[in-house]
Amino acid sequence: MATRTFTATVSSDVAERIEDYARFTEQSASNVVELAIDRWVAWEKEKARLSLEAAERAELVGTVDDAEVAAWIESLDTETPSPLPKARK
User: Rounded to two decimals, what is the model's pTM?
Assistant: First the structure.
C-alpha cells in the first residue's frame, strides 16, 4: 500500500496520550494516529450521510415542532395524555 506523510501540530497532552496508548497497545504512534484518523473520517462521513438521509426523509414525510413534542412528552405523566403529534410538511 502506498503511503503519504502528513504533518500535524498537536498539543503536548494529545501527543503524550497517543504515545501512551501506542506503548500500551505495542503499536507505533504513527499506526495509532492513522487508525484514529481513519475511524474519525469514517464516522464523519456516516454522520453526513445520515444527515442527508434524514433531511430527505423530512422533506417527504414532514417534521414535528420541538415544542409540540415537548408538550406531548409532558402530557404522558397526566391522566389524559395528548395524542402523538402529527408530522407536517
Answer: 0.69
DSSP string, the chain: -----------HHHHHHHHHHHHHHT--HHHHHHHHHHHHHHHHHHHHHHHHHHHHHHHHH-B--HHHHHHHHHHTTSSSPPPPPPPB-
The ranges assigned to domains in the chain are 12-60
What integer is the mean pLDDT of 16-21?
A: 98
Q: Beta partners for 88?
A: 63
Q: What is the mean pLDDT of residues 43-70?
A: 96
| Contact indicator for 45, 62 with CB cutoff of 8 Å | no
